[in-house]
Request: fold
Amino acid sequence: MDKQAQIDQIKQRIVDENVCSHLAASATQVVMGDGNPDAPLVFIGEAPGKNEDLQGKPFVGAAGKFLEKMLASIGMKRQDVYITNIVKYRPPENRDPTDEEKAAFLPYLEDQLKVIKPKLIITLGRHSGMAFLPNLRISRDHGQPKKLNGQVYLPLYHPAAALYNSGMRETLLDDFAKIPRILEIINKQIVN
Reply:
């Protein structure tokens, strides 16, 4: 079975197992992820917003457009990576997901990552970063790769932060510029 079919099965389990039914009740659909399931890079945000809920894809609004610009800055396209969120349903009024909601969806995200097997997981924002790196302080740790249990993570600020704070835009672009080199180092370690 190909990776996309396996991801579709995980998506169906979320529905069948009635994960966060209170969120499902107000959401249009499960927003599982988008992009290439064979990608070496996975980007993880926190939860879908209104546009994502309607289109069924993560990062399709203004933050997604900026994410695509950052990808272009390192010679990549959306189709070259996989993009997902911890929480797979839109929280009402675009509120932050609760700790309970993140915990409920985490096993499904972990299963999704086991299918994709990325070389590098890039967390976007504090919520997704802390799901994998509990001691994370985004203001201190952004742009610095961390290895935990054999997996390399790169915590970054959320692209939405750049929409409200122009200084954050440069920080994100600078951090993004490190991605090709980090991937190169990971690939060398895998080969050796």
